[in-house]
Amino acid sequence: MRWIRFSKGDHIAYGSINGDTVTEVAGAPWADATPTGKTYNMSDVKIEIPVIPPTFYCAGINYATHIREMAHKRGVEPVYPSKADIGYRANNALVADGEDVVIPAHAPPKMNYEGELVVVIGKKAKHLTEANAFDCVFGYTIGNDVSERTWQRGDRTFWRGKNTDTFKPMGPWIDTDVDLDAMETVIRVNGKEDLRFKTNDMIFGIAHYLAEVTKYITLYPGDVMWMGTDGTSPDLVHGDVVEVELTGLGVLTNRFVKATA
Amino acid sequence: MRWIRFSKGDHIAYGSINGDTVTEVAGAPWADATPTGKTYNMSDVKIEIPVIPPTFYCAGINYATHIREMAHKRGVEPVYPSKADIGYRANNALVADGEDVVIPAHAPPKMNYEGELVVVIGKKAKHLTEANAFDCVFGYTIGNDVSERTWQRGDRTFWRGKNTDTFKPMGPWIDTDVDLDAMETVIRVNGKEDLRFKTNDMIFGIAHYLAEVTKYITLYPGDVMWMGTDGTSPDLVHGDVVEVELTGLGVLTNRFVKATA
Hints:
Two copies of one chain form a homodimer. Chain A is mainly beta.
């Protein structure tokens, strides 16, 4: 089942997608969503960020090729993670499918995409095991962990490099039924395929991350966990349109626009 | 004015404090809070976390003595920050005044307190200047940035070291009128004063942080910015009670309890 968070004028709600029709519900789909009886055409609503997470988790480095290629770019030896440490991103940076990524006027020119699978939590969970970890997962969406590499390396934290306003596109919808092992991440820049990798070919898989994190941390409904990316991005410039497709799930499309002031 | 977020049974609301009386409002005090006509005795309500922030900012290292003493403990040279980089903490870890900090059963023994001034944002803000930065501030509360130093240093991020469940006590209330320059941070362990410093004696002050961060980031109502700490903490053990007082504002009290499993 596919769920979108959408707006119609000032009204924001969740709805299920059936073909071109959105069937509205009151409440969140992982809680006590109840049909309102209203339906809309997909083309008549605006797609919003699929969830504003209480906590915004990100696996960071979780694919071998990404680590190897990024190290090569920087002229250093690759360092593979020894355990599933989780990181964080910030809600101010979220934008929806179709919205612009704004490159600040005074940003260095190392703007990169990172196409990621996003796990959406549906149930409060602690002390999960790898065997039951997926019980807390509501569904999946797509994230683009947009990064400015100069800031990422020069600052003490990722605050500017990864959390500048608009640097975290997420969407377009949440899909509750996906085939993770068949899924490929395909990234296109201006319509041309730039990168393709097996989405589930992670160093530490989803179940392992969920089990490790919940040894210490309670996950809550609406939390998201971005699972990291493979490969490397070209440096993106004003006007570039980046599409992150997760095959079978959907396409997240955002244009990069340089701010003028 | 002092605002408390409180519960009475399953009911959670904000209220203003006058002596021993809480005057309830509907909505958040920085939005369109309207009196409900209900009042309570302070002793009849439970103090809740004063705000669940959309984004949870933390200045991290922002006092000279803390940097010097922590470096000395580790046998390394002190490194002072060259600019106001902001970091993040996670909502799962928040607990209220009077609630326990739970030391996980398998945690290393380097549990420390960090008493901090917390800035609560009341208005959406971007591109602030140091001159107008305080316009977005609703008020102030107290935070204890509880840290397990082994995890803090050994993990790739602060996820376990600073964001394990219950590691972020915040409260007890939000005060809109404080005298920052007169304020002292006083920390007591089991009733005995352990540390005292001038709260506003920061490397980078509040106005500077707000101006720097909002060059890139939009702040939203309810966001919090923890301003860092001075000095160092002893290693805390099961049963220790830590009080963080900000003079003129209040006292945040939490007991440390070792989990049995």
